[in-house]
Amino acid sequence: MEIQGSKVLITGAASGIGRATAIAMARSGARLFLTDINHKGLAETSRMIAGDGGEVCKYKAFDISMYEDVKVFSDEIHRDFGPVDILVNVAGIALFAQLEDMSHDHWKKVLAVNLWGVIHGIECFVPEMIRARRGHVVSVSSTAGIIGLPWHAVYAGTKHALVGISEVLRYDLKKHNLGVSVICPGAVRTGLVKTVEVIGNKDAVAKVRSKFLKIAIPPEKVAKQIISVIKKKKFMLITSLDIRILFFLKRHIPPLYHVIMRLLCWYMDKELLRKKES
Ligand SMILES: NC(=O)c1ccc[n+]([C@@H]2O[C@H](COP(=O)([O-])OP(=O)(O)OC[C@H]3O[C@@H](n4cnc5c(N)ncnc54)[C@H](O)[C@@H]3O)[C@@H](O)[C@H]2O)c1
Questions:
Q1: CA atoms in the 13 A half-sphere facing the CB of 233
Q2: pLDDT confidence of residue 65
């Protein structure tokens, strides 16, 4: 699918992967429609793109988990600009915890943004794309969407769901000439590293965060990969080699995967739990 001249809607565009993708898309000649809950960050992204000679047709801040807000935004876009060509669902939040430390609200909050937010994007924008018989739908899942990462129960639940929805749409939408991709990033250096809620010992969390940052890649690299996946109509993108290897082991050498996951679980418990008790 060509990016030049395409109408591209990106959620989560105020920061990180969403912002980097918006900037990269604009540089490739896309006409942008941007949204995020963070009004200031969204306006800043829009300014950055305009300063760079790119085109933001419309941007609006709202909570993606609120269906009515997404519907109003999509109605406005369809009325004034027609169907979008490319939908990129990026907005998300993260929460890592042990099951016994999680409240019902923790589950609801992450499901509302990471799962319902993406569903809202799909149900409000994709039917018009089907009628136009062209387009591409991208959803940003995670390593946690293909691997059962320790401490990630709710986050992994939402991200696995995105892989499942994308896999079904990949085949269902083919007859309408629509492509589908799901992105599974490893560690990426974004705002999420600071905003992730970790229910564990604070000092340990800071240490794990700094280790995460050491292996994290810049969001601009993920943005480039997202554009390439759309152009090549590729289904799944796993951004890091280590995760590609782990996913291979899960499918082809399960006993080895099992050992690695038990070690990972032991490591995270050691880092985050032991210190919590001391
Ligand atoms: N950073 C990583 O290491 C990493 C790894 C795997 C997957 N991801 C996924 O990538 C996506 C982008 O995250 P990021 O790393 O760029 O983090 P980020 O925090 O920089 O960006 C996420 C954006 O989503 C927005 N957002 C949060 N709640 C929202 C809501 N209710 N409504 C609308 N917008 C909302 C935030 O304001 C923010 O701008 C997320 O879905 C995340 O789960 C990130």
A1: 11
A2: 98
